[in-house]
Amino acid sequence: MNISNPKIYEQVADIILENIKSEDYQVGDKLPSIQKLSKQFGVSTASVREALNALRTIGVIEMKQGYGTFIKQIEPTFFEFGDKFNSLVQIKELLELREIVESATVANAARYRNKADLEKLATALSVMGEAVIDGTSGEKADLEFHLAIAHAAQNSLLVELLNNISELMQNSMEETRKIFIYDKQKTMTKLLEEHEMIYHAILEQDDKTAVKAMQSHLLEVKQTILANFKET
């Protein structure tokens, strides 16, 4: 089956996931080599690697160095208690805190940012853009972007506050990005565009637009998280 599309790796990942769900593979089965999958789908080995990386991100496969790639589970895993989060209350409190703090922070960032701040934001955006291309989640760059906004606000206590919750923020960003990788109504490109809108508002020193862009982004994150958080 030959396929072609600007997001080739997404199509490859979708086909492999469907094969897994249709029981062509069982948990524990070993997938064909990257080279064989490349020939099977008529795509480059780079596209196959990106597809497998995306599937690894959502927990469906695991890659064992020197042994190959194996089916880990049938369904993707998003937001489960007992792993990175203790309760739904905890994640709701995190989201509420981010809404309150980051809306005010981005306004000050737009007013007071300097050249160095803009460079840090642009670098984080660039890394997030690479994640869109290669199918990785990009949560570290996402966190760096939001921390750079806090630095741009020129308030050391804001930076300290966000650093104190940075692990939880990164965990939630990682899980959110997993969903964006495999939700047909949401795309990593859209997530990148939301960050770009925030960046351009800060660049233009438009604090009102910056706040609106941040609030819109955090609302999208909140809706995505709460729609996929599973109680166990």
From TrEMBL:
SMART domains in the record, alphabetically? FCD, HTH_GNTR
Which molecular function terms from Gene Ontology are attached? DNA binding; DNA-binding transcription factor activity
PANTHER family, A to Z:
TRANSCRIPTIONAL REGULATOR, GNTR FAMILY, UXU OPERON TRANSCRIPTIONAL REGULATOR
Which Pfam families does the annotation name? FCD, GntR
**SUPFAM superfamilies linked:** GntR ligand-binding domain-like, Winged helix' DNA-binding domain
Q: Which domain of life is it from?
A: Bacteria
Keywords, comma-separated and alphabetical:
DNA-binding, Transcription, Transcription regulation
Domain HTH gntR-type intervals: 6-74
Q: What name does UniProt use for this protein?
A: Putative transcriptional regulator
Stored InterPro entries: GntR_C, TF_FadR/GntR_C, Tscrpt_reg_HTH_GntR, WH-like_DNA-bd_sf, WH_DNA-bd_sf
